[in-house]
User: Which sequence fits this backbone?
């Protein structure tokens, strides 16, 4: 048998059994009805959450040094600093319980406690310093002590404790309301039962993660007495600078080998893997501007040149500009000949130019607003759909595809920056091209320059 909740008057609303667990129903006669409150209000003020703890500072890396192993005992202390501990999260703030209202005609919810703040993460330990050693005699390395451990990571801060919620002073109460005239048949009374629910306990904050230990320093060995000259493995210069003067690049080459601690004095603390110098590569990069348009509009564009460990030179051109070029290498010189250049934003500045003619003489016109047609290869894909219906007679026209393919070059005429696509030359049934036919024409322009490519849709809908 279902239980019912009385809301107002004689309206009955079903109430689940779980909502009545622990409640004692009062007895009633034909003039007394029992109901439970629907509305719930809060009182007092909720507790606010504590602030998160600040993260600990990362440890400072050990200093990098360069020295010569000349047979004299020497020691280098290059340890990284420890990371700082993270701060503790603040405890949640207690709510303001105030005075609980009495004998009110609605349920009450006591304020909840604030959540604790999360602990701050521990700072990472600083890496150990790197040491570059020049030497002539390998035995001299055994007289060098290098202490370059990484710093320890800081401990994460503890999370803050959540605050307790307020507790209700009065957990339930009854209020009776009556309608009609006492002693008359329309007299009805109902007793409403109201409850107060305790506020929840605030959530405890999560502890911060511990910081990572820093890596130990690395050893680099150069089997010569004279210092290495400066290297320029990568440079970024303007296109104008590269055209006027070749760019000289150089890179030191290193080979990774295991067993670094065994080469040094006992007690040394470095990474097991060390770097051994094996030589140097050099190259020169030059650019020839052979494009038909002047360099001026592109002179300030930045080019990044890099020499790889195998001596190969790569050039990275700026985003936003398309370059077509060829590369030649002679001895240690790389020469790039730029034969064309177009700004990317100008590639897709095509616009619909309308239809001309009719039937077998029907042509679609596309205009190049940027005037780049002479510098780009342009291809068109056309999808033509037509209908025998009329939109004035039907709002749901059925279109069928008459053509969907790349347009042959012979069907495209270019005059300056004006393209004419001869639709009448395409294998389209003549009835589909009759004047007055309603059509959907989707033209996709495919424009390329060297390895670059872009597509631009140009849709049209109307009467042929």
Assistant:
């Amino acid at each position: 048998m279902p239980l019912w909740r009385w809301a107002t008057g004689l309206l009955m609303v079903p109430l689940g059994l779980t909502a009545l667990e622990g409640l004692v129903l009062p007895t009633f006669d034909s003039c007394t009805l029992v109901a439970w409150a629907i509305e719930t209000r809060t009182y007092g003020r909720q507790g606010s959450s504590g602030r998160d703890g600040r993260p600990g500072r990362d440890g400072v890396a050990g200093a990098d040094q360069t020295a010569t192993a000349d047979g004299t005992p020497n020691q280098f202390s290059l340890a990284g600093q420890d990371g700082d501990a993270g701060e503790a999260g603040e405890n949640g703030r207690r709510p303001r319980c105030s005075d609980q209202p009495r004998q009110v005609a609605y349920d009450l919810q006591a304020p909840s406690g604030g959540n604790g703040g999360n602990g701050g993460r521990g700072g990472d330990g600083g890496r150990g310093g790197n040491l570059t050693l020049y030497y002539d005699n390998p035995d001299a390395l055994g007289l060098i002590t290098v202490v370059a451990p990484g710093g320890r990571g800081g401990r994460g801060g503890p999370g803050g404790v959540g605050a307790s919620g307020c507790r209700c002073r009065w957990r339930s109460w009854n209020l009776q309301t009556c309608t009609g005239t006492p002693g008359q048949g329309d007299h009805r009374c109902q007793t409403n039962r109201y409850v107060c629910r305790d506020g929840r306990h605030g959530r405890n904050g999560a502890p911060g993660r511990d910081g990572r230990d820093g890596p130990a320093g690395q050893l680099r060995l150069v089997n010569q007495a004279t210092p290495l000259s400066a290297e320029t493995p990568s440079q970024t210069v303007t296109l104008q600078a590269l055209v006027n003067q070749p760019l000289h690049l150089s890179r030191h080459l290193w080979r990774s080998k295991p067993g670094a601690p065994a080469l040094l004095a006992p007690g040394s603390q470095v990474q097991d893997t060390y770097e051994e110098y094996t030589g140097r590569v050099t190259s020169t990069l030059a650019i020839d501007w052979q494009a038909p348009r002047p360099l001026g509009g592109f002179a300030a564009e930045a080019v990044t040149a890099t020499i790889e460990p195998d001596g190969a030179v790569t050039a990275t051109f700026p985003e936003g500009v398309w370059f077509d070029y060829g590369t030649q290498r002679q001895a240690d010189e790389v020469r790039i000949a730029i034969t064309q250049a177009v700004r990317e934003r100008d590639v897709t500045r095509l616009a619909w130019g309308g239809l001309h003619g009719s039937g077998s003489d029907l042509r679609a016109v596309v205009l190049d607003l940027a005037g780049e047609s002479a510098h780009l290869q342009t291809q068109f894909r056309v999808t033509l759909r037509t209908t025998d219906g009329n939109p004035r007679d039907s709002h749901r026209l059925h279109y069928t595809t008459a053509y969907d393919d790349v347009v042959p070059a012979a069907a495209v005429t270019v005059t300056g920056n004006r393209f004419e696509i001869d639709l009448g030359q395409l294998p389209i049934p003549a009835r589909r091209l009759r004047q007055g036919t309603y059509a959907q024409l989707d033209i996709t322009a495919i424009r390329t320059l060297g390895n670059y490519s872009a597509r631009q849709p140009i849709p049209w809908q109307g009467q042929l």
